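Hello,

Our lab assistant flagged a job as stuck in the queue for most of the afternoon. It eventually completed. Since we weren't sure the result was trustworthy after the delay, we are filing this so someone can double-check. Below is the sequence as submitted and the structure that was eventually returned. Let us know if re-running is recommended.
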Amino acid sequence: MPAVPAFAGDLKGEGALGTRAIMEFQYESINRGGYSIIETLKKSGVQDPHRYINFYNLRNYDRINTSAVMGKVEKESGVSYESARRDFDNEYQRGDQYQPNDSAYTGGGPDSQYLRYQEAASHHSDQTWDTVSACYMDSGPDLHSVPWNGSPESELDAFVSEQLYIHTKVLIADDQIVICGSANLNDRSQLGNHDSEIAVVIEDPTPVRSTMGGHVYTASAFATSLRRQLYRRHLGLLPDQPCDRPNSNWTPVTRDPNEYDWGSPADLLVRDPMDPKFRELWLQTARQNTEIFTRAFHPVPNDKVRTWDDYDGFFSKHFVVPGEAKEKADEGYSQGKVDYGHVVREEFPGGISELKDLLSGVRGNLVEMPLQFLIDVPDIAIEGLSLNTLTAELYT
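-- returned structure --
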């Protein structure tokens, strides 16, 4: 599930009331309010419901390519990177100057900011990578080995993290049947007369010899390969797939059938979802990733934040949030705050080397859902003009 059912911002602000309302309803479905699934299981005698059901989020990190070379090119060309990008996008979106398969940009005239920027850039070489995401995938490079053109301080500030917001839903039952699409498992989606959602049910009759709970099991080829592929993606057990080197798994199935490496070491790690060793791998990866992201980026929601006072100490004092008024943002920067999602500098007295040591422990994108977030607050979303009986009914 997305950690926050909205775009990044200050969850304490008035503009986030609708987001908090959705989060409150989610938590009341999961583990609060007296009638949640976790509480109901405990009332029914299940001492540890987390043996049977758990909730997770996805999170990533990367390094923004704002190297020293970019600053030199901007100075020589008199054009900022952002202006060049906008100029290129404006021409691209017209559709008559540039096509995705063209080898060169042909739009604009002598005043083209993009061409001026590109001309200056052609005189410089920059070995800085556009992304370091390969470092937390299978057989990825050591984060310390990835080149950077600039100061250690600027590299520290270039690291950023964000939640992965996946809107498509998928349910895979017993490695036999798949339901996927935009429909949610609630009345709004399922009644057929409320939301406009759609989902497909896939039952592939192709048998695959597998195991379930340590016993020989016949699974469906599509269902089990999809689950294994997703598990491996979340756990960092797939190799990095560069966007400029597409393989058959990138193309439509009408052109190439998807490939899967049955029986590979990584496949065997996720083959049996009931194997205790797999459970340990899943739990350990989620815990380790969560702890690393918590220290480096102070993301919210977070289990360290049980009250609004905790929120101020853990989040508000460190970040300038998107959309903040310029005066308030400038004041925050003067106090040493950083942009939302960036590294909290005071956590790393050892600088960029210490940060890379920590981030090298991230594998995949799996993190624990913070079920204790604001749990000591009576109402995450207080009813008012924006949240009333009508909107509450719509949300639920």
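-- support follow-up --
The delay was a queue issue, not a problem with the job. The result is valid. The CA atoms of residues 262 and 268 lie 8 Å apart. DSSP finds 14 helices and ten strands in the chain.
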